[in-house]
């Protein structure tokens, strides 16, 4: 079975406190759905394209599990904390 990944790149962050609150709630939901953070910020070099402020990559046991996590009540409660505070691209991707 192929793994599922959440890939999120942040273009702007207006409120770091809201992001911190989101991160705490989101981490709890990630753990509840068996996810594992592979990337959460950190050092980077932009080799092509635009630079983004922050990148996060979370691995799940399957694409369906990643979708279940994203649409869960637990994650959506965390997601709501970011309203009007960030601009980001968020994708669910099937991988190997």
Structure description:
With 96 residues, the protein is an alpha+beta fold. The chain has a single domain, classed as Alpha-Beta Plaits, CATH 3.30.70. 33% of the residues lie in helices and 32% in strands. A four-stranded antiparallel β-sheet has the order 2-3-1-4, with helices on one face. Helix 1 packs antiparallel against helix 3. The N and C termini lie close together (8 Å).
CATH architecture verdict: 2-Layer Sandwich
Give start-end ranges of low-pLDDT stretches.
none
* Overall helicity: 25-40%
Radius of gyration, in Å, reads 13 Å
- The multimeric state of the shown protein is single chain
Q: Globular, elongated, flat, extended or rod-shaped: what is the shape? A: globular
Order of neighbouring strands in the sheet with most strands: 2-3-1-4
**Class based on secondary structure composition and strand pairing:** alpha+beta
CATH fold call: Alpha-Beta Plaits
Q: Roughly what is the average pLDDT, rounded to an integer?
A: 95
CATH class category label? Alpha Beta
Beta-strand percent range = 25-35%
Question: What's the domain count?
Answer: 1
- How many helices in DSSP terms? 3
């Amino acid at each position: 079975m192929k793994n599922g990944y959440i890939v999120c790149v942040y273009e702007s962050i207006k409120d770091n406190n809201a992001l911190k609150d989101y991160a705490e709630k989101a981490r709890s939901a990630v753990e509840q759905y068996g996810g594992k953070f592979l990337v959460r910020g950190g050092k980077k070099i932009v080799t092509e394209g635009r630079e983004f402020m922050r990148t996060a990559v979370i691995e799940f046991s399957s694409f369906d599990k990643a979708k279940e996590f994203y649409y869960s009540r637990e994650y959506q409660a965390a997601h709501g904390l970011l309203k009007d505070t960030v601009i980001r691209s968020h994708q669910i991707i099937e991988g190997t």
